[in-house]
Amino acid sequence: MIELRKFSGLGHANHGWLNATHHFSFGGYHDPDRMGWGNLRVWNDDIITAKNGFPAHPHRDMEIITYVHEGAITHQDSLGNHGRTEAGDVQVMSAGTGITHSEFNLETETTRLFQIWILPDRRGHAPSWGARPFPRAERDGKFVVLASGYDEDKDTLRIHAAARVLGTTLTKGQTAEYVLGKERYAYLVASKGELEVNGVKASARDGIAIRDEEIVRVTALEDAEIVLVDGVA
């Protein structure tokens, strides 16, 4: 099952400094038919103007993954963590029993990112934060695991969830395949580039909801950068 969710039909909120598009119900956008996809709860497509950001605010019992595809974001939290995550890199915050953090675009250019929230496998994990680079060249033509809750996935950022976050970069005409399998829920978005997923064509920033497909086959119709979340019900 493949369902195309056009970017133009998603939730939207322009706060001036933040231009946010919501793939699922979030904030002032509510659609009872789009409360999540499996254990994926939030996928926000955020554009943050220079020298602006989110002041300190709390979270708990959520796995929050930030994929930066243009510019950079600077994180600071109540655990004493501080870090700058730039384009192509990923950060993970496990909110667990509670954490307060801020995220600011301290750059002189606009930052564009995906913020992805995944429900944890249980409540009450210890909160944590981490970030690491994932060079685009290492994702050329294949899906690479960026964050995972599975022990067999080595050299990734850890999350407390039955899910994986993957990325790939494809040049025009390239195809990448990912073995999903029955009873799995996947959600895929290209930050740039047109593509075809199991025969369904999509533009940049469209959402593609996938369920019960043995193989996810993605072909780039132009140069593309893609993020995929593989989760469970």
Description:
This protein is mainly beta. Helix content is 0%, strand content 58%. The protein has no helices and 20 strands. The protein has strands spanning 2-5, 11-14, 18-22, 40-48, 52-59, 63-70, 72-77, 82-86, 89-94, 99-105, 111-118, 128-133, 144-148, 157-158, 164-170, 175-192, 195-197, 200-202, 207-220, 224-231. Strands 1, 13, 14, 15, 16, 17, 18, 19 and 20 form a 9-stranded mixed beta sheet that branches. The protein has a 7-stranded antiparallel beta sheet with strand order 2-3-4-11-6-9-12, with no helix packed on it. A 4-stranded antiparallel beta sheet has the order 5-10-7-8, with no helix packed on it. A hairpin with a 3-residue loop joins strand 2 and strand 3. The chain is globular and about 45 Å long. The model has no long low-confidence stretch (mean pLDDT 97).
Number of helices: 0
So what's the oligomer here? Answer: single chain
Task: List how many beta strands DSSP finds.
Answer: 20
Radius of gyration: 16 Å
Task: Report the span from N to C terminus.
Answer: 14 Å
Q: So what's the overall shape?
A: globular
> Which stretches of 5+ consecutive residues score pLDDT under 50?
none
Mean pLDDT value: 97
Element string (H = helix, E = strand): EEEEEEEEEEEEEEEEEEEE
Going by helix content, strand content and strand pairing, the class is mainly beta
DSSP strand content: over 45%
Q: Which sheet architecture does the biggest sheet show?
A: 9 strands, mixed
Helix content: under 10%
